[in-house]
Amino acid sequence: MKAFIAVILNMGIVRKPTIPEYWNRRDKTQATPWFRQMFSRNRFQLILKFFHVVDNLKIPGRQSQLYKPDLKFKPLLDFANRMFQHYYTPSRNLSIDETLVATRGKTSMLQYIPTKRAKFGVKFWVLADSLNGYVQKMTCYLGKRFEPAIVGLQGTRVVLDLLSNCNLLNKGYHVVVDGFFCSIGLAKRLLQVGTYVTGTLRANRPMPITIKNARLDSGETIYMRQGEILITAYRPANRARAKPVRLLSTAIAARDIHDRCPAIVHTYNHYMGGVDGADMLLSFYNGQRKTIKVWKKMAFNIIQRMALNSYVLYSQNTQENPMSRLRYMQAVVSGLSEEHLRERNQPPVVVRRERHRHQELRLVAGGREKDCAVCSNRRMARRRSRKECSVCLRGCHRVCWQNHVLSCKRHEE
Questions:
Q1: Fewer CB within 10 Å of terminal CB in the chain, N or C?
Q2: CA pair distance 406, 290, nearest whole angstrom
Q3: What are the DSSP E strand ranges found in 184-320?
């Protein structure tokens, strides 16, 4: 299985249009002998076909009330989340955003997000470190059928669930979110649990009328504060058609920095890209392909996330001359495949069977005939012989003698 995962990861580095092309021998310019050394093409495709994370007999059926569409990859996702939180303590600034694993397969989890490049796929809520893109936790959105709307905004519930599951509340963390998650209600809820937030506000969210209907000149800013909640409206300078942006923060002071840009805008731009940066790094060596099984694509995406997080940990703990991401992935592939290649390169063990000294083909006593032990089948075609084996006393033709010697039970004993 480690060798199989090594092949999957290496396919993200060495990209080819189809899987059989990795075993192409007809064109020398396209030869990649490492893949042939790992598996034959048929063996790899069989492992890929029967690859499973859970036993299908142990999960509820589609008609059951306990059924959920993520059951086939949820154990792997839960394991990854536990490892993500065990090996890394995030910095103070976090970002929460949605990511889309591209697919057009048939699943109730399928979402359409026109602002994403893929537009169709399975959506994950992601909590990541804003400084290095380390993913702290991922949760899969199952759709309205399995996660119906409840009282309050969905974004508020997602933020609170991610932070509470990672045990990051009441520790002074600063969370940066976009307009889907941010609201005054979220800011009040997070202040109650000792957490700060910064994010953009959508025009349809509750806010003071002065901020909502602000008509600003280029480079102009309006601030309003209630307790620890600061709301601002800002129109970027040197942009004739730029619309005012509205932001909320419970951690940033009302002040301007260079070019009359509010500090809250600078903080949002600096710390919001944690999840998007992780998605960008993931896309560089991601070898995912079209597949009918949507859960299988999710499982391989989680494995790619684990490899990316491991590189972030390596970079954080290596002071001098750390490897590039490419060299690191190549080293991971080599480490996973080393044991398998060593076993395959060992000479095969040949079991030599010594022929019985007194085993021979002789005539049946009394001129009788016996069914041939090799080629006779009473259901299909019955073939009889006047000769028999001297060890097992079963009938055998002379042309079948060599095969009979190899299969003679008494001779093997």
A1: C
A2: 47
A3: 196-200, 221-226, 229-234, 245-249
